[in-house]
Every structure is written in structure tokens, then in C-alpha cells.
Amino acid sequence: MQLNDTNQAVPAESGAYKPLIVAFCCNWCSYAGADTAGSSRLSYPSNIKIIRVPCSCRVNPLFILRAFQRGADGVILCGCHPGDCHYTTGNYYARRRMTLLFSMLDYLGIERERTRVEWISAAEGAKFAATMNEFAETINRLGKNRKLRDLRCEI
Amino acid sequence: MQKIGVFVCWCGSNIAATVDVAAVAEALGKQPGVVYATDYQYMCSASGQNLIKDAIRDYGLTGVVICACSPRMHEATFRKTISSAGLNPYMLEIANIREQCSWIHKDREEATKKAITMGTAAIAKVQLNTPLTQMKSPVTKRALVIGGGIAGMQTALDIADAGFEVDIVEKKPTIGGKMAQLDKTFPTLDCSSCIVTPKMVDTAANEKITIFSYAEVENVTGFIGNFKATIKQKPRYVDAEKCTGCGLCTTKCPSKKSLNEFNMGLNTRTAIYIPFAQAVPLVATIDPDACIKLKTGKCGLCEKVCEAGAIDYAQKEELIEREYGAVVVATGYNQIKPVQYEEYLYNQSRDVVTSLEFERLMSASGPTAGHLQCPSTGKLPRHIVFIQCVGSRGTACREKPYCSKVCCMYTAKHAMLVKDHYPEVECTVFYIDVRTPGKNFDEFYRRAVEQYGVHYIKGMVGKVEQGDGCLKVQASDLLDNRQLHLEADMVVLAAAIEPDPSARKIGTMLTASMDTNDFFSEAHAKLRPVESPTAGVFLSGMCQGPKDIPETVSQASAAASKVIGVLSKDFLLSNPCIAHSDPTLCNGCSQCQNVCAYGAISYEDQMVVDKGVRETRRVAVVNEAICQGCGACTVTCPSGAMDLKGFASNQIMAEVDAICN
Amino acid sequence: MLKIALAGIDRLFAAIAASKKLYLPIENAGEVEFSEYSEGAKVRLDALQTVKSAKDAFFPFTENMMQFHTDGKNISVEAAKRVDEDFVVFGVRACDARSFSILDKVFLADPPDSFYAARRAHGIIVGLACHRPEETCFCTNFGIDPTKPETDVTAWIEDGVLYWEAQTEKGKALTEEISAFLEASDEKAVEEQRERTKKILERLPLANLDLSYFKTHPELEIFKRPEWKELSSHCLGCGTCTFVCPTCQCYDIRDYNTGHGIVRYRCWDSCMYSDFTLMAAVNSRKSQVERFRQRFMHKLVYNPINHEGEFGCVGCGRCLRKCPISMNIVKVAKTLGGEQA
Amino acid sequence: MAIDREMILQISGVNPKLCMKCGKCSGTCPAYDGMEYHPHQFVSMVENANLEPLLASESLYTCLSCMACIQRCPRQVEPAKLIEAVRLAVIRQQGCDHLLPDELPALLDPELPQQAIVTAFRKYKK
Amino acid sequence: MRDIREKLLKKIHELFDAGVVDRVVGWKAGEFCYDVTPALFNAGNIDEILYDAFCGPNQSKFLVKGAEGGEKKILALLKPCDTYSYNQLITEHRIDPEKIYALGIPCTGMVDINKIRALGISGILGIEEDGENLKIETLYGTESCKKADVLLERCLVCKGKNHVAGDELLIPDEEAPEVPKCAERMTEVEKLEAMSPEERFNWWRSQLSKCIRCNACRNACPACTCRTCVFDNPSSGVSAKVNTNDFEENMFHIIRAFHVAGRCTDCGECSRVCPQNIPLHLLNRKFIKDIDEFYGEYQAGAEPNVRGPLISYTEQDVEPSIVMTRG
User: Cα–Cα 20 to 30 A to E324, which of B158, B615, D95, E260?
Assistant: First the structure.
């Protein structure tokens, strides 16, 4: 409501913007894949922060919106390759949910490159690092998420 | 609010070289709820662990955050540590500042900043942790083995050897399964009955093993450690206790036209029958579809001749309730009847047989007493054509998409045996690929070619036609690039193997998942190949996929060892990070039940007090012993009634908030 | 009486907006709401009603009350700024205008609500007379004259001309400021329009709503009427009636955690909601029939009892048009007070 | 319009990659002996884009289109469709044999009957 | 329509007389011709039941709570499209068909009063069907419009005259009148898809910024039957009474659409009841379109007790990256 804008300050843009990326990783494959990347000293940007979940199917669309609300500029969900889910079928459900969610975000005009799903196994440390680097590059290019952000969090 | 202690590990220089650990401890110490923060060289060392324990006692900590290596490395260690200091082991969160921070970043300031954020997220999460307790459930020390073939018997014997009771439920009148029907086994060519019948006898003699033959599992409820099964004992119309297996009744029975299942229908048996001489239990069974007495009320010859007085026409089906700690599925396989392959004349010529039928034709206990004869003429065939991959490896609707695995080897065996007994008989094998991975397998196949002169031709038979006193086989020889027109007296089809049709029903009652071919799925294709995804259900033999006897036996023993692992415990401790449903929020819509891969969710009517109103509602209940904690249900649940302990929605959102702050 | 040709009204708006915030009915995506004026905005003075009422300008849908900033374990508190500059709400209809006096009795009673009081003190209301009422209008039952809203300035639109008459000191001051855009006029056109409109008002289907039952019968008797159950049987428990109502005044105070502090704000609430007044423990009205009854008892019974016989309704008819199941205050009044008529 | 692998695949809708080289098509083919290239070779040659010999071969027209290979192929490769597609491709290619208009002036001769020119458009340049 | 009502009343009397039911969910006349109220009737006031072109509300959700507590069954009058919601509610165990006698009634298309008003017609006193047209009596004279132009959104893309659930039909579906299909279901969705992301964003912003979070869409939706909605539950972490900013406007509608994805029968109640006329059904239809394209045609509620697309999967499902690569 426009009447209320009087007490909502919009923060000024400051210098070089470093985007923030949240990565949800399933415990059994992708989180372990991140560990493998670490053990192999494969670097990716420090503005990517990982949240461990038991399975990709644990990730609720609410969590993804929450991240954007709080100022994330990109959200990536990583899980076991289809067929390799520790819980046999979890990532199949996650795949359908995320496909539909991403499509809906796109439909609402939100940059579709800000969300992504990748299947990364425990052995694929190199893939983990490469994926993160590539995703970070995409998000850097897109810049700050403005369309799905809660300005109150910036006050 | 928790009283949180933060412990930042240097991991020698692994972390400390890139992350300013002291700065991390200092920054995290300022976070709300943190009452103690420190850093130390090696948190996982004895002295590091003591540091944590002392701090828990000195500061009355209710939650602990450790910034160190991956939780996959030391989460269990630190849980024990805090538990020994009196804290619930699940009041711990680990910030992975080694693999996911110090090892991948070079810039010290950047890495330190990230480590602080990761620590903050862990603090935010631990704020919302609740003490969790592993659930203890008692274990019924008895196993159920469904199927009494070689897989079921081996599993049962191994479990019994470890001192646990086992019940075998076999739907046929005798145990022994397909292996009892085989003539010889590859690659050693020893006699199949000679090795399987002693197993059958051992199984029957083992006092820990109870055999329910001619019985079926009707229903299974419960969960690992606590299954309840209903077994349906079909009526034999013969008192198994009294029957001596003398077989006199079978000689007198006037109804002689039933197809003999043991001989693959190649000959007939009487209405009262003993499947074969070495059957276990050695008891007669009356086939109610063929018995004149049961159908018309007249006859009763068997009753008259039975000296033991074992015949009981009034016998009724019986339901037996038994409790088990674990269930092994060993439902085995069938060979498909290639009736859809009209090009191979299976339906039209008696001389076209499947390989399992051929086994019976070669077997000394078979319809021809082991003499090789063309079924139509009773004469020794001059030329036998073997066709591989009939119904396997195809994508058309009559085909199975998988390789049946054992055909290459048994066909080599058949050809070799034929050549061994009757060197004058020509054997031609049409193959697509000869697959012989296995110890001494390729040598075996080469022996058939090199030593016995079996013709192997790469190419498939296009059609078989009835010729004049022979079968005309038209095939391509891909290597010679010509079409062959051969005359043969017999054609043996290596028909595809499929799971026993009873498997589907058993899979459903056990909520054990199956693949599209109705083979049981394993919990993990590589690492948990003998377990079903449903806890407490194990897989033995062909029900999981085609395999030969040694593989079946090794899987059977592996399944047994898994069962022993379960039964040897007095209590099972379950992972407490599992789903739970808030009955006041649950809509009872059943969506969560649909996505649960483990069948852990059921519905019951409960009295619920919601917003001051008391009413009975249909609500979801998670079985804590079955739930594996994946969280699929939590996202399916629109009302948020379903949540996951240890990874609760508010915890994950708190982490998101902390990271994005 | 002054006047200005509608053709040049944008210049008037621009002039007002140059010194003050100006709110007026603006169309967005097909619907008209009071919104802040900006150049090029689609102003819809012809729209009889906005979806939400004009109370939004004084008691907004949501407003921040204070903020807590946290830095580690330290917390600092900062109160939100009250409105301290004059603003103009243009195009308020008579019904909405009356609603302010109902809201005043709640928000300005001791202790006054400082947010509301500041807005009331600084708000200048330009009323707009109705000349084409809808069948759902029934404001005349509450003694409202839609042909002459009781506002700081009253305006009429007739034949491409906006007529302007200041009614209060505030109104006169505003008129002073923009006098350059206005020219003098007689009252003929306005009087004619008012006469015409009054004739239409007499023909309105709800012109003669008999509400005497609610003032003549004991509160408890009305409360216990069995018809409440039937009336509420299909109530969805949504907040549509509440949120479009010019006189509904309930709000909730909530905290939003920004991650580095708390924003404490208030927002409209609805007594129709099952999660209304949860602050004590639970909603004391557990069933929808109780919640439904509460809302209409408030409008028709409690408000007259507490405020010198004034109903908590101004007859704007918004709820008649917007209720998803077409249940509304007129149906309630007729069902319960029917035998009186 | 040159005939290439993609074109054959497009016309036929066949995916030769499905073939597991069992040879049942050739085993089943009643016209096998009249063929220079046999059904399974057809599949293989198309897959390997070895089309020249196929296009030149009489084998194309030896196939009876009895569809036995389609019926019996365990992998649903449908060799007969592939053969049919090659035939179609050849027919379509005949369109390329026509003379192009800009090649014409050089060939023109005042004595040449109009009829011959039109015929040339249809036939020439094989 | 009048014949249908007479037939309907006769049938209701029969069912009461036969002791099958003891109450009925129907529609009651309002103050005006168009403001019909869904209501519960008993043996005493059956004849007050109305059935005309303004009986749009989908009553199946009422049965979630409304079917409780009677001695006999409750009679539900279901239009063809209502039966889809009815099936879906059975699938989700939200209604007990044992307690309900579902009578399928025919429908000739329901009128949206907002569309009449949007034509600029005001002061509406009476509306009469006059063949394909509506004759509208107003304070300001008589007006008319084509009925097809003012049908409810759901009727423009009518699912057909067949009932997919119910105990009995008032008249056989074959004999029932048909509502001519006036529009393609996905046309509007496709229009939006064809826009640039920036245009789409602005379009949705202008629509969703109107939202006053009255929850009418949610509370009317037959798929939103949660006993406590996440947005009302303070411990869910996302609860709010109003949208304090654009993020919350977006989130509420994205999550609501997601929660009903695969379960929404496209009955259009959300858009019908929205006081701001936000075309909320376009969110649901987008999910339906995606589901149809990605996982095969699926109509929620077409039959009871089937697994919806979000609680099933195939191993060959498309990857989420399809969103990035298409169009």
C-alpha cells in the first residue's frame, strides 16, 4: 500500500555488489560432493553458502522463496542423480516440484536463471565446484535480485 | 533461548591457515544466546573433547556449535562427546568450515567472514534444536523367509545356524524350488539334485526351521523387529503328520490326467501326488481340481488304501498368525512360456521346448528317465538348435528389456551334455552375444565349442517351420553374411526369466518397492544390494534380478547375515531425525502416505483438541521405526503438519535467515 | 461556490501534489483504489466507489509502529515517525466521509491513537457528491446525504465541470492555496444535480431499511436469535467484508524479524478470521457462527449502544457487492429485524 | 537435395541406434538370398551413413515389404521402414536431376525444338 | 432453467419423502436477482431453493464441514464442474461420500455479475434471460447484453455437461443442455508466456499489488481445505494477516498455487470471489498447463482415488532445466 511508504526506507546501492547464493545440498550425495570438492581443494566463490538437508525432497518451495526474501540472489538445489537417491525416490519428487516452481517463477517474470537444480554425486567434487563457479557467474551477471526481495530486511 | 557454546577448531593448520579462528570465536561469542566461545587446535582430540565437556558443565550449556570439519566426518564423535557430558546428543550443530571454507578459499579475510556466517547459521539452527531420543523397539527373534527354493533354504539355514528361529513359507507342496528341477549345474556339471536335496533335508531337519509348505503369506503388517504375518495353509486333504510318504495312494488314484508341474507339464500325474521322490516334506497332496472324490463325492480310493489313515477330505484352509523380526523375500522366478513367439512354433510343435523343459528331458528323474528323445517321435534327435535371448533384451511389448543372465551358460551346458552323451547329435546355438562373466564361465563356453564341437552362430533365428519329419530353421549368419536354412529335430528356446507372479502381491503387502519388471528394488544398487528400501525386509535370489546359483546362494547368505544383524539385537535404535505429524494441523488428506517410499505413514482416528474444539479426526501417524527421515512428506503436506525432527522447517529457515542476513 | 473545468483538472492535481501528498481514486489493473497521485496516473473520479474505502488514508492497511535494531546482543529501539505533513484525500464519497466520524469515536477516544490522530490532523478531505447511485447503496438510512458529503471541501461533478465548496477551515485553507485554478460559479448546476439525485435515491431498492429492531430490543435477545446459525452456515470466514468496510477498525500488531532487528507493525485484522485475537491464547469465538454474529452485532447493536445510537454502518454497499457468498448486513438486518418492518 | 543419413531417419522415423545387431531381421527375411545388402546391413549402413552403395544397390527393390522384420525385431528398429525410406529418398532425389534454368542458355541451340528443352528439364543431368 | 428447477424441487421432495436425506445444500434468493446465497435447507423450506444463472458458487467444499452432524445423508446439488472438486475431496478424504447424497444437476452456464458491471451497466434491479441475451432492468433504464459475454470464467471453458461423480443425475447427461465452449482454456496463459519477462513481471505486479489478502480466494477454494493454513499458523514462520509488501503478495499467491498444484480442478472460484478481480486462476492454469506438458494430460478430480502429478513421478521426468531452455 503506497500510503505506508513513508516509513520504509530503500537502501542506497553501494559499490561493487557481491551476490549471495544459497545452495541446498542433500546429505548423501551433494553435501558429500561439496566435501569432495573441499578435499580436492577445488575452489568456488565464498558467497555461496551451503545448507545441509537430508534429501533434495526436503526442500520446500517456501525455503527458496525465504532465501530470496532475505536477500539471496540465487538459489541452487543439489541432490543425488535420479535413480541414486539414498531414499530411492526423494529426488524424483523434488524434480517435479522444482520444475513446476521454477516455471511459475519464470511465469511471474522473475529471472529464471536465479534458480537451478543440479544432480551431483559424492564423487563429483569437480562437478560441484564447476557447477558453483558457473552458477555464481550467472548470478553475477544478473546482479542483485530485486523482484523477489523483502525491503524490510535491508533496513 | 539456549545457552550455546561455540568451539572453533584449527584442525592444525588445515583451518587455521586460512581462517582466523580466534576472530571467528570472538565474533560468534557476540551472537545472542552464545555464552561461551573458544578455539582449539584439535577439537576431535581427547583434550579437545574434554574442553567441550568441561564447558558444558561449567557454563551449563544447552546447545553446542562446533566449527570444524564436515559433519560427515565427526558428527558422531561429537554427539558422543556432548552426550557423555550429560547433554542430549542432538543438541549439536556443526559448521563445516574446513571442506566448505578453509580448503577452498585462499583469501584469509574472505574465508574468515564466511566461517563466521556459517557459524552464525549453525547457532541459529541450534537455537531451535530439541532434544531427540533414539527410539527403542524390541525385536522378535524370528525370521520369515518367503519362498523355499535354494535362496530361501540357504537364507533359512544360515539364520538358523546363528541360533534364530526361521519360518519358511513355500506355496508349492515341496521346498526345493527350481533348482530341484535342474539336471546338472554349470560350470562344474555336478548333478543338481545331488546338491540340492541334501539342503532340503538339512532344512527340514533343522530344529530352528519351521517349513510351511503348500502355504502362502496372506498379509504382513508391522515394521522392522515387529512384523506380524498371516500365513494361509492351503488344505492338502492329507494329514501331513500321519502321511508316511509311501506313495501307495498315488499308484491307486484313478485320476491320472493332471499335468505334472515338476516335469514342466511334459507328462502327467495323479490327483493325489508327491511332486518327486525327494520332496520335502515327503507328503502326498490332493489336487482338488482333479480329485474325483472332492469334485463328485464318489471314489475315495486313496483313503481306502492309506494304511496311515492320513487322508482327510474335510481338511480346511487354515490361517496362522506369526510374529517376526525380519522378512526375507525369496520368491524366485519363472521362465516365460514363449507362446507369443509364433515364429518359433512353441505352441504348435512338441519338439520346440523351453530350456527348463529341456532340463527335465535330460534329467534322470524326468519323464524320459534321462534319455534324450524328441517329444513327438520318441527318437533321438539328430540335430538340436538352441535359440538364445527369446523374450529377453527386447523393447517390443512381448519382450523383457533385461538380459536373463543365465541362458548363455545353461545353453552351453545343455549342448555340452548332449554332445557328451550323444556325440553324434549336432548342436547349433544361435546367439546375439555370448555373455560369460563368471569364474570358469568363459572356459566352460569355450570347451563346448572347442572340445565338444558345438556350432555357435552369431545371428538370430527368424523362423522355425514344420518340415517333413523335421523342423526347418531359417536364420542369418551375420559373420558369414548368409541366410541359413537348417533342418533340426528339436529346438530349445532360452526363454526369458521373469519374477514369480506372486512377487507383486508380496511387494505390496511389505510396501517393498519393485521396479517396472516386478523385480524387487534394492535399498541401494551398489551399497545395499540385499536390502529392500523397507527396513527389515531383505532380498534373496532371483526375486531381485536374474542370477545363477552361486550368486543366489551368496545373496541368500548375505541376506541371512543382515537378518542375523537385526535379530541379534534385543532392541533396535532408530534414527530420531524423522518425520512427525502434528495432529492438530493434519488434514488427513493422505498425500504424505503416497510419497512415503517406506510405507511409514498410516492414518488413524484420533481425538484432537484444536483451537479449543475437541473432535475426532483422521490423522497421519508416522511409524518411528520405519521412517528414514527423507522429508518427502514434509513438502507434500500443504498445512505444514508434517515436519522433520533435526531438520525442521523453522530450523532450515533460521539457517537461511542467518546466511542471508 | 467555485468551479474548474474537468479538462484542466490534472493541473489542479499537479498543483496540490506539488506541496502535499495527494490521494485520489486511481485505477490499477481494472480496479480503483485511493492511491498517491503521480503524473499520468489513471484518475477515476467517475468511479462511484473504490474497492477499499477511504479509511485507508487514515487507518492504513498496514503501518510500521516501531523498529528494534539488534547488533550482537545489543538492542536499540526506534519509534516510527508519525505523519507530520498535510495531505489531501480527494474524491471521498459521503458514506466514506461519515465513516471517519465512526472511526474517530474509537481511535480518538482517550487514549487517542497517535498514528490515526496525526493523520486526521493533517488530512484534508475533499468530498465528492454522488449523482448516480447503485442499487446496493443504502446510506440514506443512516442520515447521510450523498449529494453533499460532510468533508473539508465538497465537490460536485456536473457536465464536465467540477464545482468546489470549502466547508471547514482546513478546506478554506486548501482552497486558498489553489485559488488560482478555480473560478467563481453559481450553485444552479449543483442544486439541479442534487434534486435529480434525490429522486433517484428515493427509488433505491434499499432506501427504506428498517433497523429499528436493533435499537428497540435487548442486546441479549438479538444475540440469542436462532437465525444466526442459518445466516452464517455458508460464511467462508474470509475477510472480504471487513477489508472493504469503511467502519471496521480491528487491527493486529505483529513483529517481523528482519534478521538484524524487528519491525513492529500493525495491520488490519478481521473478526471473521479464526486466528483473530490470538494474543491471549485462543480466539474466544471458536465457531464461524460466533464470529459472524460478532461482526454484525458490533455494527448493528454494540456500536449504537456505545456511541449514542450510531450504527457501525454507513450503507456504502461494498459488502453487498463483494461477499463471495452474497451474505451481508442487509440480509442480516432483514432476517432478524424483518418482523418489525 | 542430397540424400543423407538424417533424411533417411527423418522419413522413416527409425532410430538405428536401438539395434542390438542380433540379425533376426535377416534371419526372418524371405527375400534374403536376392539381396546384396541384407536387412541388418541396411540398418548398420544407414547408422554409419554408408549410403552410396545402398543407393546404387538393387537390394533396395528386392525387399518385399512383407514387414516380417518389423514384426519380429525385438528392439523395435523396424528395418523395412528404413528400406522404404531409402527408396523414397531415391525417388525424391530424382528431382535433383532436372536442369537448372541458369544452366540452360549455354546449351541452347536455335534448332532445338521447344519440346526437347522441356524434356531436358525433366530428364537431363543424371 | 425454470423447468430444471421444477424438476429439481420434485426430486428433492422425493428424496426427503423417501427418507434418504434430511437436509440439502442449495441456493437462496437474495436482495437482488443476482446475489444468490448458498444456504442449507430442511424439509420445511425446500421450495425456497433457487436454481438459476446466478447459482455459480461451487458448493462441494461446504460438504467438508457441512456434511457432519445430520441424522440422515445431506443432499448436495452438484453442477457438472462441481463434481470434479467433489471427487478430489473424496480422494483426499476430506469428505465422506457415505454421508452425502450427491445429485448431479445440469447447468446452462453461470453469469458473472462483475462482468455485467464491467460493461458499464449500473443500478441493476433485475435480470432476465431472453434467449441468448440478458435483459437488464436498471435504475437508469433497460439494458441488454449477450449471456455468452458475461459468463463466469469457468463457464467460458466449460468442462462439459458430464458429471464425473454423484449418486444420481437429475437428468441423464446425454439429455442435458451443453454450455458452448467460448474460449480456449490456455489462451490467457499463452499470452502471458509470450510476453517478455519484464512485461510479465509488471503485469503480475499490477495485478497482485491489488491483493488485500482477504483470503477469499483461499477460503472459497475447494482444494484449500487445510484445517489451519500455513499462512494462519504463527509457528509456520510465514504467517501474516496482510501483505506488508510486494514480496508477501507474491509469496502468498505462489505458495497457494503451489499447494493446490495437481489438485486444482480449475473451478475458478478463486477468481470469482476475488474482490479485486485478480485473475488468480491464471496461476493455477499455468501449473495445469505445465503438468499437462511435462507429465501428461491430467485433470484433477476426473476420477476419485488417483495419485496426483505431484505425488507421483516417472524416472524419465523432464529436468527442471527445461524451464531455462524452452521459449
Answer: E260
